[in-house]
Structures are given as C-alpha cells and as structure tokens.
Amino acid sequence: MKKSSIYVCSNCGYEMVGHMGKCPECNSWGTLEEKQVDNKKSSNKRNATKPSIRLKEVQSTNSNRIITNMEEFNRVMGGGIVRDSVTIVAARPGAGKSTLLLQVANELANTGLKVLYASGEESESQIKSRADRIINEISNNLWVISDNSMDNVLNNIHSIDPDLIIVDSIQTFTLDAFPGSRAGSPTQTMECAYELVKVAKNPHRPRAIFIIGQMTKDDEIAGVRALEHLVDTVLIIEGESGEELRSLLATKNRYGSTGEMGFFSMSDKGMLSIDNPSEYFMTKRDENCTVSGSCLTVVREGTRPIILEIESLVSDSFTPYPSRIGESLKREQLNTLVSILEQRGGIKLYDKNVVIKTTGGIRLKEQASNLAVIMSIISSVFNVGIPNDYVFISDVGLTGELKKVPSLESRLKEVDRMGFKKAFVAEGYGRNINLKNLEVIEMKNLKDVINYVFK
To answer: C-alpha 399: how far from its chain's center?
Structure first.
C-alpha cells in the first residue's frame, strides 16, 4: 500500500507537503514533524459519498439526556449529558478533574450504564486508591484501563461496548498510525480526538465521551485551538488546590448556556455539589448581629442569581499613596467607585486604605454589585453595620445616580426566596414584580441611599 509524507507543525498544527525548516504559518523553526499518509485510504475517503437528509427528519438527542445526582453538574451541562456528545474538562493540576469525573462515572455505572475509564497518566492501582477514598461502593459496571495506546482503548470500547467513556488525559495518548509524532504533539492530540469523536457520533451506537485536557501556564488548554472547536462542550474547573471551593464553568456548550457555572466543595469524599450557593456565600450571623463593612448584593453566574456578601476594610494610611486592594474586582473599577463615593457621597478617602473581597472569592464581573461595594465601604468608614436583611442591587453612575441592571426580576425573586426584607434598586425599575415578603425600595441617587441606611 503506497504511502506519502506530509509535515505538521507541532506548534500550530499547520500541514505542508515539503519540509521548509520554518513553519510558514507561525514562523517557528524546528517544529515540523513528518507524518505518514495512506494514499489509498485518503482516496477512498474522497470518493465515498454520504447521502444528505432533511433536517426536519433528524432525530434530536437533547431530550434523551443522562442525568446525574449532582445538580450543579447537570446545570453546567445544560440539563444533563447528551448521549452522543464529546466534552473536554480542563483545570490546573490538583483542581479535581479526575476526582469529579470518577464520581460521575461510578454514579452512572450504578444506574446500569457501562462506563470505561481510560487513563494514560495513572495506573489501575492509583485509580482504585482514589475510588476507595471518594466512593462508598464501586460499581460492577465501571471498567478501567491504564495505557497510552489509543488503539488499545478503541479495541476495549468495541469489546466492552460502554455508554460513557472517560479519557484522562488526551495529551498522553498516541495512535500507531502516526509513529513520527510523540504523545502531546498537535498531530497525536488531534488524531486521537478525531477517533473519539467518531466513536461518540456513531448514529447506530451513540456514546458520551469526556476528555480530560491539560492546561498551560497561561491557563489555556494545552495543544492546538482546534481541539476546543472539535468538541461539543468545554468545561473549566477553577479554584486553588488548597481551597475548599471549586467552580465548574462552561466556556462552550452546544447543548446549553455558555457561561453557566456550578459550585462544588472539595472534601475527603470528593467533590460535593453546592445546591444552594446563596446560602453558601453568606456568613451566618445572628439575626440582630451586624458587622461593619459587610454588605449583600445579587450577582448572576450564568443564568442563576446568587446572593453574595461583599466585605470592606477601611483603615488609616501612613504613606502618601494609600492602598486600593480589590481581591475580587479590578483595581480600576475599585478606584472608580472610590472616586464616586468621595465626590458624590461626600466621604473623603484620600488618606485611607481600602480593601475589598467577597465571601468565597467570586469575582465581581457585573456592574449590579457597584452599589453594594460602595455601601460596604461606607459601613466600614462609619464603623456601623448594615442590617442583615438589606440587599443592594444597582449600578452607580459617575453622576451618583443609580442605574438599571439586567435581569432585576430574577434577582429580586432570589432575594425574596431567601427571606430578606428590603432590596434597594434604581428608581422606576422595581415595580410590578410579584414578590411575597420583600419590600423593594427605589432610590434616585447614592446620597439618598446613604441617608436612608445610615440615617
């Protein structure tokens, strides 16, 4: 059988017929790797024809999802796992990628589904040790294989016939058809991914596949960008290895909302789903106990509103340039809010250090939290606590006027559900919303809110 060679850049994945020394796409030297191509096979692929069908006649698989007991995982996936989908899960080392997917694998295996866990990084005994630690009873429907050969994994898929396949991690596997490329190279990574996509998208036997991907120092998925375009869903686990809180973020989802976020608590028993984040991200205090510098707002993570506690600490500065530290928001945003407070609120902070953080470390990416940040700073300056049943949901303009925020109704309903008494919003936007016990207080500008809360 006649074969020919092409050269593939290991840096960007660009392909060319001849060796040029330098990649014409990314201008990298010494990155071209030889790859054998089966001419006969390629010719057969070009001559093969697949008939087209009417889109109306295509059977949808969205309604036939695999549901887990982890509500946060189901939410991020768009309501469950689509049976012919390919999902890549990436995170920093130690964030919990393998732990989470091993839990999902065993849980679905207990429902009767066949699951194959293929690892190119850990031995069978290492996987068993982790399973003994986080799983009470290992299912008989869970198979495991430790091998770097994707060919062997594919053979096991055909022999076991699993419903769910987990590959950990894609950068450690190789195909025998590409002997000139090492594991982790763009050629091997993409070719292994292509084979897995074929397995998942088989119309006669669809399978759900999860691929674990390594991350670079720049917090990007290792390998070519085409890998992210190839899969259906991209999930990122965020959180430091020494912290309890983990967040699961969908940066791409063909079957659900992009930007959806789920929260988990890392424990000795694995990743535990936090089904009520609003309660988790608030400090539990007695009803009449108030603490200066603490203020509540509502942020949106994906489609879900979450009540979040913002903490501020204002102290005297003994240097010409006081500190402005925002652990959960950009420094420029904090400086802007401090300037608004000084000019429109009449509170001078030119000789004060200001430190802002949130419970759980969630970043303040929305303008809806601006009023709460300012109010927490004022509370710290006056050393007077804000009542625990007050929530602030508004942007603040440079003029000091309160501004409208998106999805206000869903935010207010979450505040009402959690039993709070008063919510402060911009004038003209809190009316005609059906609430049980929550009183919506509309304010025109920052000065009015300060006068109302601090008398």
So the answer is: 35
